[in-house]
């Protein structure tokens, strides 16, 4: 199992150089085709129960088109040595940006995207909601901090729960796990569930071994904040990537109370591979 095609989602109107270097490194490592994709929403004629002048809508569209061209130019410039194995797709839409990206992902094995934690912009017409994307895309999503310029995925931590999302995530991550120098499978559970957690981890390790991956099991008693605990274990392990199932319970609960997925999306210094 490998990643034969990678799709890198680029932010319009901002530099994507670090993300593109990571996407290029991964594409070369997996000998994969690389697709660049960008999407933005245009201004609507009908806006907040009023009407926007047509010339403002036209100016907005022209501005977006110019930014799209700049984004494509950056994509092709940074990855110019792979010009024969590149593709570019972009659109300006009145609809859902995550839906567009999800549809384009039919041609990819892995989606690579970034979250800008330092941006003060609140313009939702230029920013894709990561939760919506992960829920809709049907592919693993590698979320890269915007400040990260290189990725060497040598040490990987898998956050394990006995759930559909975790099973999906560890399968989706196999190409990374097979190349890693060290893999740790972390199960966090209450004391009364610890025997079952250890048993499940043994099963996961046996399954990985049949795929040629040796891993270290870590069964950790829950301290009450599983997201912070997983992050602390990843720090101790020197993890380059955390692999986890995304939104194993309702997103409404994550928004209200927080959770592992929300914490991983907010991480400013570590990549996360998320699957739903």
Q: What does this protein structure show overall?
A:
This protein has 276 residues and is α/β, with parallel strands linked by helices. Helices cover 41% and strands 24% of the residues. A ten-stranded mixed sheet has the order 5-2-1-6-7-12-11-8-9-10, sandwiched between helices.
Descriptive labels:
276 residues, two-stranded antiparallel ribbon, alpha/beta, ten-stranded mixed beta sheet, 12 strands
Layout of helices and strands:
Layout: E1 5-9, H1 17-30, E2 33-41, E3 46-47, E4 50-51, H2 54-78, E5 86-93, H3 97-104, E6 110-115, H4 130-137, E7 141-145, E8 155-160, H5 164-172, H6 174-179, E9 182-189, H7 194-210, E10 216-221, H8 226-237, E11 241-245, H9 251-257, H10 260-266, E12 271-275
Parallel strand pairs: 1-2, 1-6, 2-5, 6-7, 8-9, 8-11, 9-10, 11-12
Antiparallel strand pairs: 3-4, 7-12
In short:
The chain has ten helices and twelve strands. It is of the alpha/beta class.
Overall shape? globular
Count of individual helical segments: 10
Largest sheet strand order: 5-2-1-6-7-12-11-8-9-10
Q: Can you write the helix and strand succession as a string?
A: EHEEEHEHEHEEHHEHEHEHHE
Largest sheet, strands/sense/barrel: 10 strands, mixed
Taken as a percent bin, the fraction of beta residues is 15-25%
Say what oligomer this is.
single chain
The secondary structure category is: alpha/beta
Rg on CA atoms, Å = 20 Å
Low-confidence stretches: 252-258
Helix content: 40-55%
